[in-house]
Amino acid sequence: MVPPRSVTSPRAPARFLQFNTLREFEEFVTALNLRGNAPRELGATAPHMPLVWDPLPPLVAQRLVETLSQEGVEVGKSPSAFSAAPGAQRVLAFVSSGQIARLASRARSAPLSARAALESLATGFRSIDRQKKGWLRLAGGRRLRLGGKTLVMGVVNVTPDSFSDGGKFFSTEAAIAQGIRLVQEGADLLDIGGESTRPSARFVSEAEEARRVLPVLEGLLRKVEIPLSIDTRRPSVARKALALGVGMVNDVSGLALSAMRRVVRDGEAAAVAMHMRGTPATMQKNTEYRDLRGEVFNFLAERTRRALADGIPRDRLIVDPGIGFGKSPEGNVELIDHAGEFRSLGFPVLIGASRKSFLGVLTGGAMATERLEASLGAAVLSALRGADIVRVHDVQETVRALAIAQAIRP
After folding, report:
1. Packing angle between helix 235-244 and helix 206-223, nearest 10 degrees?
2. Which end of the chain has fewer CB atoms surrounding its CB within 10 Å, N or C?
3. 278, 326 Cβ separation under 8 angstroms
4. Tens digit of pLDDT for each residue in 282-313?
5. In Å, how far are 13, 379, 380 from 342, measured between CA atoms?
């Protein structure tokens, strides 16, 4: 059974919807009750863009509808698609860029209950354009260029029980050599982790995790020029990694701990906030959602809101919908196919689908080491659908595949 969700805040941000099929478009039009009078364009790059706020308390939804209607926006509201809170509403709308500009200019004078919703509309609109250039700031004064090209993050697992390579790079020397190899193959950054987060993975103490990864990080920092990321849920491990010169923290728990947010803030590092329901030990026990994309979107909105409130600047944050972390195979496909929707939050989007089990399910039971073609397909689709960064094991092959995707759709 899907657990009920409650409306705890009137600040549900605007989500610009990504329609990839006519059926998705028609379902939206039906929900909006436009009865054939809707704009005929599809998706967030069209002159009129579809979006949703969900869930909203009833008063906020009503004030928002009134404000949008005053600007001539096609708008409607209905019960929330996933919240079980009494009276929870969702607001659906078709807006043009001109209407967004006017609504943004009047956000400060709008009713207080609708102000945050209107401000999120402007933030999302500025962020959905993949071609718009920007920078991701890392620790140590380093930066990564964003916009247009999808960046490739190479994975180095310093674990004896990794699902993807079975401990092939568990020794310090093997892990450093693999990192150097991935750089030579074209990686834009490396992600080094010492704890397996696959379902039912063995517990690893903080001391053991640090013992695994810190020597690898030290070795790579001396030998490669590209930025490094530490893949950890533990503030103490992240702090030690940043002290060595690592630029980013990739936290599968979604920056849940205030201690982790302080480490990122004080270290002036970049950070990835990922969605996961439960823990690695429990995440695959419940993969049902009333509205998968809406729930993941709002989770990431809340986690990034906490990060911003704790002093982490916006240009240091990345969101990751958590492919394989508490999702069904069909759910993983849906998230990849709509990766661009998460750009509405105002942050770059990272997708990590490489070699994951759902790819094996969809390809007839292929083992992790036999999922190269499936991983490449997922990486290319992620890039075409709006991902800024793809996290992969097979860097050279991914770089080549993305070069073709970029040539076809710059």
Report:
1. 20
2. N
3. yes
4. 777 788 899 999 999 999 999 999 999 999 99
5. 11, 16, 17
Cβ-contact 248, 229 below 8 angstroms: yes
DSSP H or E run through 137:
strand 134-137
SS3 annotation, 76-95: EEEECCCECCCCCEEEEEEE
Tokens of 252: 């599968």
Q: Is 192 helix (H, G, I), strand (E, B) or coil?
A: strand
| 322 torsion bin: left (phi>0), alpha (psi -120 to 50), beta (else) | left
Domain ranges of the chain: 15-127, 134-408
**SS3 assignment, position 309:** helix
List residues bridging with 15 in a β-sheet.
Answer: 52
DSSP code, position 166: T
Rg (CA), the chain: 21
The reply to whether 391 belongs to the active site is yes
Give the position of tokens 């209607």.
69
pLDDT of the residue at 283? 77
Catalytic residue among 15, 316, 355, 356: 356
Phi and psi dihedrals of 203, rounded to 5? Answer: -65, 140
Fold of 134-408: TIM Barrel (3.20.20)
Architecture of the domain whose range is 15-127? 2-Layer Sandwich (3.30)
Classified as helix, coil or strand, 139 is: helix
